[in-house]
Amino acid sequence: MPARDALAARYGAAHIPPTGPWSPVLDALLAHRSVRAYRPDPLPEGTLETLVAAAQSAATSSNLQTWSVVAVTDPARKARLAAVAGGQKHIGQCPLFLVWIADLSRTTRLAEAEGRTLEGLPYLETFLVAALDAALAAQNAVVAAESLGLSTVYIGALRNDARAVAAELALPPGAMGVFGLCVGHADPAPPAEVKPRLPQPAILHRERYGSSGEEALRAAYDSELGRFSARHEMSAYRWTDRVLARLGRVAALNGRDGLKDALRALGFPLR
Amino acid sequence: MPARDALAARYGAAHIPPTGPWSPVLDALLAHRSVRAYRPDPLPEGTLETLVAAAQSAATSSNLQTWSVVAVTDPARKARLAAVAGGQKHIGQCPLFLVWIADLSRTTRLAEAEGRTLEGLPYLETFLVAALDAALAAQNAVVAAESLGLSTVYIGALRNDARAVAAELALPPGAMGVFGLCVGHADPAPPAEVKPRLPQPAILHRERYGSSGEEALRAAYDSELGRFSARHEMSAYRWTDRVLARLGRVAALNGRDGLKDALRALGFPLR
Asked: Residue A56's Cα: distance from chain center in Å?
């Protein structure tokens, strides 16, 4: 697909950014969609290992590698994890469900084996490094999966009950499931289209942060996303209203308002 | 490069995982290296917009898009940011320095314009969503940059002083620089080689977490990374010792032990 068409699909015809250098990888990245309906077909042999090799090839802070991944294929276990995530049916449908772990437990075992204590472990910073590195790794796995013709969707709702996920996966203290990822062959039946994002000037700042013109950009995006929703027989209320609905009430966090307590219980003091 | 060679470079010859399906994108992902020496050559016109389009194509939790990016090219500003990051010279060398922002300020402005308050904003969960989505976006930008022949390195050390970064970039309350990213043409002079990672069985778990065999895997990795370091005239002490040095003492966090206080000062209560 020519770059201009890919950018038009991502931003809408009225907000195409300047077209710069391009590559086939850019075509693939711009074509990303999250997929929530999967065929039951198993993955080719070795797919998991390939995805993990891509994930481990991402950068990792100071080469600490403070993340792990648990590959779940057992239908009963997937069903229990889907229940934690509010019953999202695609977790049961997909042949491979990956849970990405912020993992300071391996580092703790290393220190114990060496007879040392690690003063840096209890800090919010160290948890954040682990969570961010898990995210970089997972995104590489997503790009890798899509390059193999597979589809994915992130499942942040595992954080609705981080303790239940830890118990289900037998995570040791200092390990926490940051998010899940469905991997599989997309069911072609539901309509598939790239979802538009905010116009670039709303998120890209030069030298210093600025928000002038932001209200007009948001209004334009409300309209663009409304047209997208109408094409997919989704309720066409404004993006603005979706944001208000998601963040307006504590109840909409679905338990994630307890994340700090859950993390402390799982061995992250977040000092 | 055949898949097996790429995997051997990433894991060492003794720990090549099973070879599964493969693609040219996999070749690119497996070939990643962080680059810390840049030529001063400017980037082709439109490169920044292309990288941001790739970044915005990554998944974002509930489509909230709670991240921003500040593109820094001014040499004086890069020098000041390099000082925050402990004087890393590649920040000054690279033609484009991207600071990835966990940005709840845009959502706050949206709520103010609508005359609403957002109960969900003050929670650790909501900060984490913003930081993770910034990471997914940035990793897409990294993959995009490498597909254009450019190189990158993440700069977590911006968190040494998150308040100084916020002041430098005029970030509003509720916005925080999670990490930086150098983008540019690699200086070919320093030797370039893919860095080995832990053997897959140390980080990949099936159905439930397990750590049996971990000590042997770590010993093998200590040896592998020692050989890598020797080839690059770096001190060849064990990975184990690097981890102990990085996390053993609070002083090695270089100020990041104050991240929680800094975040609170920047408008993230982390409830």
From this structure: 16
Average of pLDDT values for A114-131?
98
Is residue B50 included in any domain, yes or no? yes
Task: Tell me the per-residue pLDDT of A23-39, one tens digit each, with 9 for 90 and over.
Answer: 999 999 999 999 999 99
The dihedrals phi and psi of B113, each to the nearest 5 degrees, come to: -65, -25
Intra-chain end-to-end CA distance of chain A, in Å: 49
Prediction ipTM score: 0.98
CATH code where residue A77 lies: 3.40.109.10
Instruction: Enumerate the residues of chain A whose CB falls inside 8 A of the CB of residue B56.
Output: 10, 197-198, 200, 203
Mean pLDDT of each 10-residue bin along chain B, 271 residues long: 92 95 97 96 97 98 98 98 98 98 98 97 98 98 98 98 98 98 93 91 98 97 92 81 96 97 98 97
Q: Do residues A145 and A152 lie in contact, with contact meaning Cβ atoms separated by under 8 Å?
A: yes
Burial class (CB in 10 A: 0-12, 13-18, 19+), A14: exposed
The answer to whether residue A25 sits within a structural domain is no
Q: How many domains does chain B have?
A: 1
Please say if the pLDDT value at position A234 is more than 80: no
Instruction: Confirm or reject contact between B4 and chain A (CB < 8 A).
Output: no
> According to the model, what pLDDT value does residue B236 have?
66
The sheet with strand A151-155 has its strands ordered as: A151-155, A175-184, A96-103, A67-72, B204-206
Domain ranges, residue A148:
34-190
Mean pLDDT of A160-174: 98
Query: Could you give the angle at which helices B47-56 and B124-147 cross, rounded to 10 degrees?
Result: 130
Looking at residue A236, what is its pLDDT? 66
Contact between A98 and A71 under an 8 Å Cβ cutoff? The reply is yes
The contacts of residue B266 (CB under 8 Å, 6+ apart) are: B162, B163, B166, B171, B173, B174, B175, B176
Q: Verify whether the Cβ–Cβ distance B247 to A74 is below 8 Å.
A: no
CB contact under 8 A, B18 and A46: yes
Q: Which residues in chain A are contacts of B50 at CB distance < 8 A?
A: 3, 19-22, 26
Q: Is position A201 within any domain? A: no
Instruction: Give CA–CA dist B24/A244, Å, rounded.
Output: 41
Contacts across the A-B interface (CB distance below 8 Å) = 406
* Cβ neighbours of B63 in A, within 8 Å: 195, 239, 242
- Is residue A157, in this structure, part of any structural domain at all? yes
Q: Could you tell me if A52 lies within 8 Å of chain B, comparing CB atoms?
A: yes
